[in-house]
Specification:
By secondary structure, the protein is of the alpha/beta class. The chain is built from 14 helices and 18 strands. It has helices at residues 4-12, 50-53, 62-74, 86-98, 112-128, 172-176, 205-215, 239-251, 304-308, 329-342, 345-367, 369-372, 401-411, 433-450, and strands at residues 29-33, 36-39, 44-47, 103-109, 142-143, 147-148, 159-163, 195-197, 219-224, 228-229, 235-236, 255-259, 283-286, 298-303, 376-382, 385-390, 414-415, 422-425. It binds 4'-deoxy-4'-aminopyridoxal-5'-phosphate (PMP).
Length: 451
């Protein structure tokens, strides 16, 4: 018998990424504690995927909760054009200090997709703003044939480069720079053109270099998920090859946008995935773990080179972008609190422990029968993230194997949500070794059952 909560959920709520035809049963979570989620019947689930890769220190963390409460009593929201507040300023100065490269300015938004939209718009307008004549001197009138008569990028840089297999969010700009697939299919005719190149390795790199020699000068920006392509199936790239690619891209003066929405704040073992590379980005996108997974917040950080293109008396060279909740004081406070926890030796130790245990589990997977029989493929790790594929006919997100594994794992008290046939673990840092071992054991159990 369904609870009233579940009945009303079914009546009134449309859940994300969920087919509305015979929608699967929803679980009502009423409490979270550490790495555990507790449902309305008292069942507990180890959150092995950090609730869509956001939770860092565990659910309902008392330190973050207390800071939020104190801030809520002081200032919950204020318009961010013409006004500022202490949590935003403190957070921005902290981020500028710790981000890789020479980040100088922090632009706030609401989530990962908006952080990406902001980055793309900044990069495109950066080139438009190179126009020497004031943009305001161009006739701005709407004419049916020509549209708004502003100059095309005066430098001729109007192409965008992204990696095959990428995912950068669900808004139109973010979808445009993401791999075309089941998520974007309904909108293909409305997405802007993007040039996709292969993730770099020794086989793909020479072709990309050749391509950049021919087309590099026409490209405005390159957006990439450093080291791990998350939603594309936790595909991992060697730091060496990504660094080589960035060297080439930067030699053509292309603006480099690191989408660290998923990889930021320790997931890859360093504070940012870009910290593994010598080449630094011009723009960085952050969200998810930014607030420890407590609240929605997006950040787009940029260097002085990017920012300076917007410092102009010509009003049309302004960056006309902003969201109602830009730099919400509660979200900034959560981010500051999460950062305090992240910098503690205890948290660094927890990350190291997860990495050590992951290494052992990958070894165990490689020694397993399932691996020997080719039933599990490509076990891999990057920092606190591990992934492997289950061999199957369908290699895409709609693979039904995902739901099967999800349901089986829940029965054993573990939350897993494979991306198609890619099984992965991306736990909150507070997960205990016992809990993590339980996650591994449940995975092995399921794999053996499905052999
Ligand atoms: N970029 C990356 C790399 C992501 O993994 C995601 C979300 N999975 C996004 C952007 C979009 O973030 P959001 O869901 O917060 O809009």
């Amino acid at each position: 018998m369904e609870s009233e909560l579940i009945q009303n959920d079914g009546k009134f709520i449309w859940h994300p990424y969920t087919s509305q035809f015979q929608a699967p049963e929803t679980i009502a979570i009423v409490e979270g504690k550490g790495s555990k989620l507790i449902d309305e019947h008292g069942n507990t689930y180890i959150d092995a995927i950090s609730s869509w890769w956001v939770t860092l220190h565990g659910h309902a963390h008392p330190y973050i909760a207390e800071k939020l409460y104190q801030q809520a009593l002081k200032l919950e929201q204020v318009i961010f054009a013409g006004f500022t507040h202490p949590p935003a300023v403190q957070l921005a100065s902290k981020l500028v200090e710790v981000l890789p490269g020479n980040m100088r300015k922090i632009f706030f938004s609401d989530n990962g997709s908006t952080a990406v939209e902001v980055a793309l718009k900044m990069a495109v307008q950066y080139w438009k703003n190179q126009e020497q004549k004031p943009l305001a001197s161009h006739t701005i009138q709407f004419d049916d044939e020509q549209g708004l008569s502003l100059p095309v990028s005066p430098t001729g840089r109007n192409k965008i480069l992204a990696l095959r297999n990428s995912y950068h969010g669900d808004t139109f700009g973010a979808m445009s720079v993401s791999e075309r697939g089941v998520f974007t299919k309904a909108f293909h005719d409305m997405l802007f053109d993007v040039i996709f190149i292969d993730a770099p390795d020794e086989t793909t790199f020479p072709t990309t270099v050749e391509f950049l020699e021919e087309t590099g000068e026409e490209i405005a920006c390159f957006i990439y998920e450093p080291l791990v392509q998350g939603a594309g199936g936790m595909q991992m790239t060697e730091p060496h090859w990504l660094n080589e690619l960035l060297t080439e891209v930067k030699s053509k003066n292309i603006i480099c946008i690191a989408d660290e929405v998923m990889t930021g704040f320790g997931r890859t073992g360093k504070l940012f995935a870009s910290s593994y590379l010598n080449e630094t980005p011009d723009i960085v996108c952050l969200s998810k773990g930014l607030t420890g997974g407590t609240m929605a917040l997006g950040v787009t950080a940029c260097t002085e080179k990017i920012h300076s293109a917007f410092v102009n008396e010509d009003k049309l060279k302004t960056f006309f972008h902003g969201h109602s909740f830009t730099a919400n004081p509660l979200a900034c406070t959560a981010a500051l609190a999460s950062f305090d926890l992240l910098m503690k030796d205890e948290c660094i130790g927890q990350i190291e422990k997860i990495i050590d245990l992951h290494i052992l589990f990958i070894e165990q997977l490689k020694k397993s029968d399932a691996y020997a029989k080719g039933f599990i493929l490509n076990p891999r790790q990057c920092g606190t993230i591990i992934a492997f594929e289950m061999k199957d006919k369908h290699n895409d997100y709609l693979n039904p194997i995902s739901k099967k594994i999800h349901r089986k794992a829940l029965k054993h008290g573990v939350l897993l949500r494979p991306l198609g046939n890619t099984v992965y673990v991306l736990p909150p840092y507070c997960i205990t070794p016992e809990e993590l071992n339980k996650v591994y054991n449940v995975i092995m159990l399921i794999v053996e059952e499905m052999l």
